[in-house]
Amino acid sequence: METISRLQKLECLRITWGKNSKTESSSTTDEEYVDQRFPLILTKLELQAATHQTASRILRLISQDSLSRVEKLYLKGGGLKEIKHVFPHPTTVRLRYLTDLQIKWDDFCKVFPNLDRLEVEKCPKLSSFLCDENGIWEKNEDTDIVLAPSPSS
Q1: pLDDT tens for residues 63-104?
Q2: Which of 12, 24, 108, 121 is deepest in the core (most CB within 10 A)?
Q3: DSSP character for 115?
Q4: Is the model's pTM score more than 0.90?
Q5: Are 68 and 60 in contact (CB under 8 A)?
């Protein structure tokens, strides 16, 4: 991570974990990540096949960095189970092959308050999402994010 933070002109970044990639040690503490950040000019981040622990830590770094400007966030495969932090900047989110990811539509909208476009593919636990038959949701220009209808409706 230290090397990435020094690449100040980096606008797009894809990180892929392979089958034999070393996973982070369970002894790695959250405090070791506090001072780390992605380049300020980074606008697109794609994480592929990250473990839940790794993806969660990277997502936390982005969400807690008040200077972060990541507008496009693509998450593909891996073990991500939940998204807890609020991301004020991403307008486009792509979720693919995340079989363990579980979050309700209303909560997702709170996590990504400025979302304009969402693409979902092969994420079976996201069935409450308001995507079309192609797995795409786009914000209506005339309204804010549409929340799922309540069960009492």
Answers
A1: 888 788 899 999 999 999 999 899 999 999 999 999 999 999
A2: 108
A3: -
A4: no
A5: no
